[in-house]
Amino acid sequence: MPDLDRIAVLSDVHGNLTAYQAVLADIEARGITRVVSLGDHIGKGPRGSACVALTQQRCQAAVQGNWEAFLTRPGDELSPARGGGTTSSRTTTSPGSPLCPSATTSC
Asked: N or C: which end of the chain has fewer CB within 10 A?
């Protein structure tokens, strides 16, 4: 039987840096080197920027969650600046976006 790569998939960090660091430490302790994130790194918790930075460092790929979509569309009628609600879309991040710093590939 061939060796299979193990991949950790995580989501919904919501700015909880302490929990995020603990989860990533557990993933590392298990010898898992490929990590992907399904989004929602920001929102609710106080340390969203630090969680985004950690995602950029540790995750091989990330998609944009509804919280990232909601908070990064200032011209949209759903944005907080316009007093709108939330959106439930999930799309991959674009090259060069905060969660996908690569200028050449989608994350």
From this structure: N
**Average pLDDT, consecutive stretches of 10 residues, N- to C-terminus, the chain (107 residues):** 82 93 96 92 86 92 85 61 42 48 42
d(CA 53, CA 1): 37
Cβ neighbors of 53 (< 8 A, separation 6 or more) are: none
Q: Give the containing element (helix H, strand E) for 27.
A: helix 17-29
> How many residues in total does the chain contain?
107
Give the 3-state secondary structure of residue 64.
strand
What tokens does 20 get? Answer: 């995020």
